Amino acid sequence: MIGGSSPEAIAARFTAVVHAWVTEGPGERTDRARRKLLAAIAGQEPATLNDVAKTIGRGAPAVSRSVDALVRAGWVERTQDANNRRRLALRLTEAGREQMSARIAGGLQLRKKLERLAHSELRALERAIEILER
């Protein structure tokens, strides 16, 4: 623990600050929405459109358009539900899973780098994050 925060906690706070500062443009908002959709689908596989819409708090028509984009990107596949032919089941493809794990890997890399720093360096970073969080 460094000044009350572990390297893992500092990495999480730093990531949150970076996202707050960087996520101002339309590209970043789109990327964040895409990750949210992927996570909602992954958490309920095989997910239905209504399940995903309810999870992320958006209407089914908007989610349907977003899922269409994920299907075109090759990150999600739609298949007929074996129990109900009128319903489609959504699943992540291997490429979709890689998109999800790439973000997690980035956070782990930051944490590993922070673990190599001296106590005084970690405290300086923690203080900088406190300033940025204001």
Q: Which short descriptors sum up this protein?
A:
6 helices, mainly alpha, 2 strands, 134 residues, 69% helix, two-stranded antiparallel sheet, elongated
Question: How is this structure best summarized?
Answer:
This protein has helices at residues 7-22, 26-42, 49-56, 60-73, 94-115, 119-133, and strands at 76-80, 88-92. The chain is mainly α and 134 residues long. Helix 1 (7-22) runs parallel beside helix 6, helix 2 crosses helix 5 (94-115) and helix 3 packs across helix 4.
Describe this structure in words.
It is a single chain. Helix content is 69%, strand content 7%. The model has no long low-confidence stretch (mean pLDDT 80). Strands 1-2 form a two-stranded antiparallel sheet. The chain is elongated, with a radius of gyration of 19 Å. Helix 3 (49-56) packs across helix 4 (60-73). The longest helix is centred in the C-terminal third of the chain and has 22 residues, at 94-115. The chain has six helices and two strands, in the order H-H-H-H-E-E-H-H. The chain is mainly alpha-helical.
